[in-house]
Structure formats: C-alpha cells, structure tokens
Amino acid sequence: xxxxxxxxxxxxxxxxxxxxxxxxxxxxxxxxxxxxxxxxxxxxxxxxxxxxxxxxxxxxxxxxxxxxxxxxxxxxxxxxxxxxxxxxxxxxxx
Length: 94
Fold this sequence. Notes:
With 94 residues, the chain is of the alpha+beta class. The chain has a single domain, classed as Nonspecific Lipid-transfer Protein, Chain A, CATH 3.30.1050. It has 4 helices and 5 strands. The protein has a 5-stranded mixed beta sheet, covered by helices on one side. It is globular. The two termini are 20 Å apart.
C-alpha cells in the first residue's frame, strides 16, 4: 500500500478522535506520514516525535499485526523525540 493511501486511511480513522502533539512516520526513501492537528498528510515537517520504520512495518503496526513494544525492542521501529507522543499513538490504533 502506498503512503498516500495509508495517510488517507489514517485520516479517516482520526475522525472523532483527538491526538495531542505531532508525530511523523518516517519510511526513508518511500516518504513520510505526518499526524498533526487531527490530520494526516505526506508533507514532511518537524514534529514532536518521529518513528522510523519500513512501509511494510507501518502497515503491520496500523493493522495490529505488529506489537509496537516488540517492534521497538527488535529494532523494527526507531523512536526519536518526545516519547509521550509515541505512547499516545496506541489510543488511535486500537
């Protein structure tokens, strides 16, 4: 699934939910998805927290096929910035 499709899916999932802060899924050469102000876009910008992972692992994470804690421990996800923002993500993907 392309990042713009994933971003659109995330944006639909954000309807009626609140997310304080800003978070970036950095998929390297494939691009980024930024969550901020109740929106999801593929336009890169500075954020409070960045998760670096492959597009495949992003899809698995968002569909519940990848446990976030296990993924971090195994090095499939690298987190930089405000960890509390990353922890808020669990409210959106459950």
